[in-house]
Specification:
The protein is mainly alpha-helical. It is about 90% helix and about 0% strand. The chain has seven helices and no strands. The longest helix is centred in the middle third of the chain and has 44 residues. Keywords: Coiled coil, Signal.
């Protein structure tokens, strides 16, 4: 237990310093290698996408409740929808952050792997290691493309949500709500497409993690 507490403190300290190379070096000294870090970061990126799916769905539900408003406190319904939009924005930012962290450790891992291959004297071992590196790179590229495709679907949705929230903020009445109902169907379609794309990315993440853990 003490080891993991110390590991967490070390991790936080070095990450705050912004020195990734020092971070990786220090983590390796306590038995936590780049490969392990990469698996953990892919897992975290996957979890951030799952959270984003939930947040975008919740934002859609609150907008639906707002647009179906029929008596009661209109401002309260607006505030709930606004809060969910802001949560979706935060979730999207976290997805991007997690993908960047995956890319950072992947670059470090592949550079190290290639350097170490060049130090292997036996040709057959060098070929086998090179083959495994290339296979892992291909799998990784497929994973990141999938993550980035899902990520790219979020900004247009957030922009549409923001436009609606700002419009309603300045015109919070039944007539204003009626004016944006036509855009709601598009939002439903876009969020449905986003969730499907994220499901593909999540599946790729699971596949990549399994391949890394197998060897």
């Amino acid at each position: 237990m003490k080891k993991w507490i110390s590991l967490a403190l070390l991790s936080s300290s070095l990450l705050l310093s912004g020195c990734q190379s020092a971070y990786y070096g220090a983590m390796e000294k306590v038995g936590y290698h780049k490969r392990d870090i990469m698996v953990d970061r892919v897992q975290e990126a996957k979890e951030s996408q799952e959270e984003a799916q939930e947040q975008f769905s919740s934002a859609l539900e609150e907008m639906q409740a707002l647009l179906a408003f029929d008596g009661g406190d209109l401002e309260d319904a607006y505030n709930k929808a606004k809060d969910e939009y802001e949560s979706a924005q935060s979730a999207a930012d976290e997805v991007s952050h997690r993908i960047e962290k995956v890319e950072d450790v992947a670059d470090a891992l592949f550079d190290e792997w290639q350097t170490e291959i060049e130090e292997i004297s036996k040709a057959s071992l060098r070929r086998n290691s090179t083959s495994k590196l290339n296979e892992t790179k291909r799998s990784y590229k497929t994973l990141v493309r999938s993550m980035r495709r899902a990520e790219a679907k979020m900004p247009p949705i957030l922009t549409a949500m923001k436009d609606n929230m700002l419009y309603l903020k300045h015109n919070l009445n039944a007539q204003a709500i009626g004016a944006i109902k036509g855009e709601f169907a598009n939002l439903q379609t876009d969020i449905s497409s986003l969730i499907k794309e994220m499901n593909k990315s999540i599946a790729e993440s699971n596949k990549f993690i399994a391949s890394m853990e197998q060897g």
